[in-house]
Amino acid sequence: GESVGLHLPTLSVQEGDNSIINCAYSNSASDYFIWYKQESGKGPQFIIDIRSNMDKRQGQRVTVLLNKTVKHLSLQIAATQPGDSAVYFCAENGGGSGNTGKLIFGQGTTLQVKP
Amino acid sequence: DADVTQTPRNRITKTGKRIMLECSQTKGHDRMYWYRQDPGLGLRLIYYSFDVKDINKGEISDGYSVSRQAQAKFSLSLESAIPNQTALYFCATSDRDRGAFFGQGTRLTVV
Predict the structure, then answer these.
(1) Do B31 and A101 touch (CB under 8 A)?
(2) Which of the four pLDDT bands, split at 50, 70 and 90, describes residue B111?
(3) DSSP characters for A44-91?
(4) Given A5, A24, A35, B5, which residue has the most CB atoms within 10 angstroms?
(5) Per the CB < 8 Å rule, is A101 touching B99?
(6) Predicted pLDDT of residue A4
């Protein structure tokens, strides 16, 4: 079946450093991808999305890169702060015109920021 | 996201009981979803609805049912709860351009 996976379950970085969280997806029909941040006891928070007609998209301190050739997605966080500590999930839509919410999630990477 | 409100936030129920989880949204989105999250795992889709008259099963719909009472309301029911339905449940909404935006979740424990 389809799967969305993250390469590392836990990533530990020093405050102020840049973080890179990786994700591999397997469904070549997916054309919409989202990164979510989930803090303990809270729902997933939408960080940034990207469509398959793009290979890079930037937000505030975050950048998402999409490599469709190798089915790889990454989230870069600049100048990581303690408040960035959370579990990060990538999600893909598995295709479907206009499908933005019927998502397949990876298992998540825990980002730990050391002061 | 405060625009998506789930009730209750926590619930303990006994095996065999019927329970309903409710979700309401003020985002004006047509599409609503119910997801389940088990410890250490990502979310899995239970049911989704693209408008009031449209209900679809997701990946793990067995043992669950839903009702879309209005554009802003989407409820999830467990007709006869069992312990392996103990999980975090999230409601979400989206439109055709972006999504999905999640509520704060309901922690359900079936004993």
Answers:
(1) yes
(2) very high
(3) -EEEEEEETT-SEEE-SSEEEEEETTTTEEEEEESS--GGG-EEEEEE
(4) A35
(5) yes
(6) 60
Distance separating alpha carbons of residues A46 and A62, to the nearest angstrom: 12
Q: Tell me, what's the pLDDT at A1? A: 29
The encoded tokens of residue A37 equal: 């941040």
3-state helix, strand, coil in chain B (%, to 5): 5, 60, 40
Residues in Cβ contact with B18 at an 8 Å cutoff, skipping those fewer than 6 apart: B77, B78, B79, B80, B81
Residues from chain B that touch A4, judged by Cβ atoms under 8 A, are 42
The residues near A71 (Cβ < 8 Å, ≥ 6 apart) are A24, A25, A26, A28
| pLDDT for A2 beyond 50 | no
Which residues 1-60 on chain A approach chain B with CB closer than 8 angstroms?
4, 34, 36, 42-46, 49
- Give backbone dihedrals phi and psi of A69, rounded to 5 degrees, phi first: -60, -40
Cross-chain CB nearest to B48 (options A44, A91, A102)? A102
Query: Exposure pattern of B49-79 as b/e (b: 16+ CB <10 Å)?
Result: bbeeeebeebeeeeebebebeebbebbbebe
The pLDDT tens digits of the residues spanning B40-60 come to 778 999 999 999 999 999 999
Average pLDDT rounded to a whole number, residues A62-66? 98
A76 forms bridges with which residues in the sheet? A20, A63
Tens-digit pLDDT profile for residues A5-44: 545 689 999 999 999 999 999 899 999 999 999 999 899 9
